[in-house]
Structure formats: C-alpha cells, structure tokens
C-alpha cells in the first residue's frame, strides 16, 4: 500500500485490493471522510481537513485491512443483451473468434463492478475474457446510445445514457442502469456481480419521468440567457462511488455570499451566469443579491449594486450585463430557487446530465419559502473581486508527479499558462510550455478532485473545475489548494494563470 497526497483535502491510496479497502471503509466511513472513490488499482479518500488531519487519516488508512464483501443474492444482476452492436463484426474479425463465439464468450463470463466513473451509473466490469481485450477505438464516437454494451481493454460495461464514447459496441440493453428516483440510483455499484444474457428481443425501456410543471403564478422567469445560465447550490456529497460528481457552484465562495446577503442558508440554490447577459422577470416581490464577477445591473432602468441586497417589486426586470472582470456571476433570491433536488442537490451537472436542465428563455423557476424574521447582518464585501490580470494560484505536487521529468514541475510553477476558449465548467484547458513525461503508457483510471492539474499526452495541462469527471486516466502532476478554487473559477479565456508551489503545505505532507 502506498498513500499519496491529492491536494489538501484528499489522499490517493495505491492498493492491490481497492474494492476490498473500499468495503472496509465505506459503511460507515471514518470520521471526517466525505467520499470514497474506488478505481482500477487505487482508492481516493476525500476528507474534511477541519475534521481530520492528513496525518491522522494516513495512520488510519495504513492500519486498514481490505475485506471481502459478503455476497448476497441481490448483488447479482442479470442484464439481457441483444447482441447487435455496431462493432460486433469488427471485434470478431480482430479477435479471430467469429460473431457467434464473441457473443458466447462475452455472455458466459461472470463479472464484478470494480468501480464507477465516466458517467453516473457507468460501472467498469472486470472478468472480461482475455481473448476479447482490445484497446479503445482510435476515434471515439460523438454519440453512443443509452444501453449500449461495450468492451475496452480489460473492462466491459453498459452506457447508462447517451454520451460520447470510445468502447467497442457489442450489443444493447433496455434495462435502466441509472434512475435518480431509485434507491440506490445505480443498478451496478462497486462489488455488484453481473451476468449478460443473450436475447432476441428487448423489453421496452420504462417511460421517462415527465419534468415538473412550471409554477402557475409567482416565481422567477428567465427572459434572456448569456452563454450558460444554470441553477447551482454547493453540490452533491457521498455519491462519488456511483460515478456522481459534486458539481455545485464553480465559485462556491461567491454563491455562499449571495445567499448570506438575502438571509438564506449558504447552500441554497441560486443562479450561476457565465459571462452575464441575462434578463430576469420577477413575478412576485423578491429580495435578491448579485455577487461574483462584477456586472452592470439595472432593475427597470435603475442601477443596482453588486454584493449588496436589494428588493424588487412583482413585474420588475433585472438586466445583468457582461462582467468587466471574472467570468461567473451569482444571483440569489430570498427563499432560494426551489427546483426539485436530485441526490440531495439542486445543482446542474453539465457533464453528468444531472439536476435541472441548462436554463433557456421562457423557463420559470419556483422560489422557496423564506425563513421567518429579518435577514441577518452580513459584511458587504468579504469576498475579493475577480482580477483581470494574470491569476496566481497555489498547488501541491502529486499524486502522480513521479510520472513526469524532474523539470516538469519547475516548468509548471515557473511559466505562464493561458486559458483557452474551449474551457468550461468541467475544466480549464491551458496553453503554455509542455510538461514532459518520464513514463510512457496509460495510467489505470483513478479518482479525481476539483483542482487537479491533469496532463494528457499533448503535455498541455487541464485544470479540473466543479463538473470534472469522477475518474481519469491521465496523470495528475499537481492539485490546486482548495482555497484557490474560487479564484480559478473566475478565469476567463485569454487570461493568464501562474502556478506557485505551496511550500508550507508541501512540507506538512
């Protein structure tokens, strides 16, 4: 067992038995542990530094012993498959088995879900016959349909929803792999045993649950949107093992301030506007506040101030212009945006497709009941305004800095990187000096955290944000300090990023 630092709020455990270690720690998790992410050969342990120190957690993990989960009948899932996949004949040709033999070999094996990732409910199943092991497709498909059954490397799996994908498709199933209204929502969870059953005809898939009706009166109506307007709170917790990320406000500090200013709990749902450009119609009197990237604000032609609560009458329109600096602006209303919660959060996860859809003109959002009593007194501006120049942020090395040359970390922390235009809530794609690897080959998929600086073969780093994937297969050279995540969430295309090694925290590790 080897325990590696992964930022200031997570540890990555290299282990021969990640599923056994996960079983030993998951029920219940140790005090201070907020999430566990088993993967191919690692277990990511996220923790609250205010509740447990890295040293205490290291000691606990060092003494933990993997356990073999007790097999139960309900842990066996039989998945009916119609073997009609687009790649079935190609797989038969490349393996030399023939189509009937590919089907027989794939369907005769017993599989176990080793870990979840890529998308909510997507289980990586071990037990694939070595004769069927092929590398991923050279060119991933733009869209793989929900229910597609595929193989790649040593794994097989089922796509729970339509998404891009690079696996070889053998067939399809109509079994719902993911249902947020089900407990647990994922049909295939770490440790679940799986068998595939060939069928000639699939049962029809269950009908989707219709979206909730818009409120007949009251609420907040979106008249105009900027590039991206979503509902966000502070995110989802304790579902990472099922492939569900935290998501939530990219600049959680600004969102929490907006909620405090109007008397909400910090975790109430609000609006996140990317590059402003929104017009909102209030269909009832409301108390609101706007924080984050500073934008021109007008309410029925009257200027309003950022970082300060104000009241609008029923029928008022608020126009939010483009920010002068920063990227993301937050609009909180007293009572909070009251859309249905999904897995304990009202946040929109754009990568996973969870939560309310991205907002569009004509959307009407219900507003919750405000707390009784006057809003509490709040400091007007305890959050620094976003900067327009180069951003300087602190990183801790690891967990995979040993995959890079000795100069790579010095290059990262001594150079200027620029945010490119194809950045989003998933992560910032950066352009600058390439970071050279000392090792070749693929890293087995392992858990990721927000702030991870992942380096693909191009050497150009990607800095993960709120909607990052749960697992990834490119090495992470360093991880941002948690306190600097709000800073980086306001970085806009063309802005410079300068990384600095956090010597004090690095020494503590």
Q: Can you give keywords for this protein?
A:
509 residues, alpha+beta, Gyrase A, domain 2, Cyclophilin, Jelly Rolls, 4 domains, seven-stranded mixed barrel, six-stranded antiparallel β-sheet, globular, ATP binding, ATP-binding, Allophanate hydrolase, hydrolase, CT_A_B
How would you describe what is shown here?
By secondary structure, the chain is an alpha+beta fold. It has four domains: 2-63, Gyrase A, domain 2 (2-Layer Sandwich), CATH 3.30.1360; 73-198, Cyclophilin, CATH 2.40.100; 220-365, Jelly Rolls (Sandwich); 391-508, Beta Barrel (Cyclophilin), CATH 2.40.100.10. The chain is 13% helix and 29% strand. It is built from eight helices and 33 strands. Strands 25-32-29-30-27-26-33 form a seven-stranded mixed beta barrel. Strands 20-19-22-17-14-24 form a six-stranded antiparallel sheet, with no helix packed on it. Strands 15-16-23-18-21 form a five-stranded antiparallel sheet, covered by helices on one side. The model has no long low-confidence stretch (mean pLDDT 92). This is Allophanate hydrolase. One of its GO terms (molecular function) is ATP binding. InterPro entries: CT_A_B (IPR003778), CT_C_D (IPR003833), Cyclophilin-like_dom_sf (IPR029000), PxpC (IPR052708).
